[in-house]
Amino acid sequence: MELPDATAVLSVPPDATPTQGDPGTVSATVTAPNGDLRIYLNATPQQGEESQSNWPEFRLAHLTGEHAASATRLANRAGMPFRGGPGSCVEDTYVTRVGGHKYREIACLVAGTRRGSVLVAAAPADSWGRYSTVLEQAVDAYAAE
Q1: Total-model pTM
Q2: What are the extents of the domains in the chain?
Q3: 105: three-class secondary structure by DSSP
Q4: What is the pLDDT of residues 83-105, one digit of tens each?
Q5: What 3-state DSSP class applies to 120?
Q6: Are 19 and 28 in contact (CB under 8 A)?
Q7: Residue 37: helix, strand or coil by DSSP?
C-alpha cells in the first residue's frame, strides 16, 4: 500500500483489509471472525517536530496526548536500516483511555530521500506473541521513497 504522496510503501499480510484512516495515510487491519482486532498497520507522512533523535519520546507523548491513558517504552533503536533510508524505532505498550484496551506496537520514523514517514505495526498486547513475527516482517519490508 503506497502513501498518497508516494513517499513510502507499507507491506501488509495477504489477509489484511485496507481500512479508513486519516487523510494522507494508509492503514490495514487483520480481524478475527468476530471482528476483534488482531493486527493494525499504518503509514503516515512525517508531519510534526518528530526527529530521529527525539522519536521515542515524541511517540510516547503523541500516544498519551491523543488517545492513550498511559504509554510505556519497552525498547528503542536508532539508525535502523530501511529501504530508502535510516529509521528510529520504539517498541511500546499503551492503554487506551476509552475501554482500557492494551496494545503493543513497533513505531518507526523513517527518513526517506524525499520526506520522512511513520510506520506503526500494532496488536493487542495479550496476543503480541502470536502476531509479532508478521508485524516484524511488515516493519522489515517497509520502503521509504
Answers
A1: 0.95
A2: 8-144
A3: strand
A4: 999 999 999 999 999 999 999 99
A5: strand
A6: yes
A7: strand
Phi, psi of 116 (to 5 degrees): -80, 160
Sheet strands (E) in the chain: 8-9, 17-19, 26-31, 37-45, 68-82, 85-96, 102-111, 116-124, 143-144
Residue at 25: amino acid letter: T
Predicted local confidence at residue 114, as pLDDT: 87
66 backbone dihedrals φ, ψ, rounded to 5°: -100, -60
pLDDT in tens, 10-56: 999 999 999 998 999 999 999 999 999 999 999 999 988 999 999 99
d(CA 43, CA 26): 5
- Count the neighbouring beta carbons within 10 Å of the beta carbon of residue 66: 9
CATH number belonging to domain 8-144: 3.40.1000.10
